[in-house]
Amino acid sequence: MQFRLPRTRNAATALAVISIITSVVWYLLAKSTGVMLYLVPADVLGLQFWQLITFIPATKDPSPVLFGAFIIWSMGGSLEGLWGTRKFLSFSLGVTFTAGLLTVLTAWLAGNSLLERPYFGTNVLSGILWVAYGLTLWSQQLNVFGFFLTGRTFAVFGVLVTALQAVFGGGAAVIPEIFGLALTFLYVRWASPHDLWLRFQSWRLRKQLKNRSSHLEVISGSKSNAPRGSDKYLH
Question: Which helix (H) or strand (E) holds 143?
Answer without folding.
Answer: strand 141-144
